[in-house]
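Email to the structure team, subject: Type II secretion system protein H model.

Hi all, the expression group asked for a predicted structure before they design truncation constructs. Nothing fancy, just the tokens so they can compare against earlier work. One-line instruction: predict Type II secretion system protein H, return tokens.
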Amino acid sequence: MKRSGFTLLELLIGIALGVILLGIGAPSLVNLLNSNIAHQYAQHLLQHLNYARQQAIDNQQLMTVCLAVSDNNNGESCLDANTAGASRLIVFIDSSSDQILNANEQLLAASDPLPNNLTLNGNRQFTQFSPDGTAIGTHMTFQLCVSQQPMVNVTISPSGRSSIATDSLICP
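Reply from the structure team: attached below.
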């Protein structure tokens, strides 16, 4: 008599192999997803930087870009260089030149809030795009970090162009 189907032993061996393969692949998948978070947010920052540069050219006025922290009294203010705690990147017309987004100043763009596992720092407090599209001052670099992943840098050159590069440093 011929039987079709699986025996209990064959089923248990198949499930055991599936669990082993899943155990091997799951950590790699988590690392891939975490790495993609930093690169996706870097692309998002790059879009905002290109927008700020284009607005400076189109409106023929200075555009300020900085990492911001919410200040309940004064609105949003730019973080000091190399300071953690940024909530997002903002692009605004800083008519008072105080690096604070005041009520009378116009916010042009703001990035999405940072995901919980992502940290963002900048080596300068802010950068400004001049009406000809150049960035005032030296290079500015934003460093995006996800724990145990390579650091992703978004750099603004004095020419006003922005680029993304993956660093060899591993984030803590």
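The two ends are 64 Å apart (CA to CA). DSSP finds one helix and eleven strands in the chain. Ping us if the truncation boundaries need rechecking.
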